[in-house]
Amino acid sequence: MKQAVAIVGLSVLISACSDPCVNTIVSKVNSPDGLHSVILFQRDCGVTTGFSTHISVLVRDEALTESGNAFRADDDHGAARVGEWEGSWASVTWLTNDQLLIRYAQASRIFKQAANVDGVQITYKVD
To answer: How far lies 61's CA from each of 1, 35, 58, 104, 118, in Å?
Structure first.
């Protein structure tokens, strides 16, 4: 009996440490020189949270594994316009090999807005 309780307790502990979030890629665009990719994705962390929009700048073909390393936002409980993926609307455009423009919906609640990721300079514009 004690062994069964210990196994159940260990299972609960392990599952509590795992990331409950799921990333769904909305778009992926390679830089003009092909060295980087920018990925816009929806992040869903379960029923107690809404969908959020994340953007990561990665070395081309690097796997997307976590939350966005460049940009993270949500629609602030319906205050901001949402995209087709149900997260706060955003778009990405490569301006040059190492310059990226991220546009995002007015009234978005911003959690991360990096100015530089892996040598890529990022400019932001509210739409």
So the answer is: 49, 9, 8, 25, 14
In this structure, is the dihedral angle defined by the CA atoms of residues 116, 121, 126 and 127, taken in order, positive or negative?
A: negative
Tokens of 46: 């379960």
CB 17 within 8 A of CB 10: no
Would you say 54 and 72 are in contact if contact means Cβ atoms under 8 Å apart?
yes
Q: What is the model's pTM?
A: 0.84
Query: Is residue 17 very low, low, confident or very high in pLDDT (cuts 50, 70, 90)?
Result: low
- Residue 44: CB atoms within 10 A of its CB come to 18
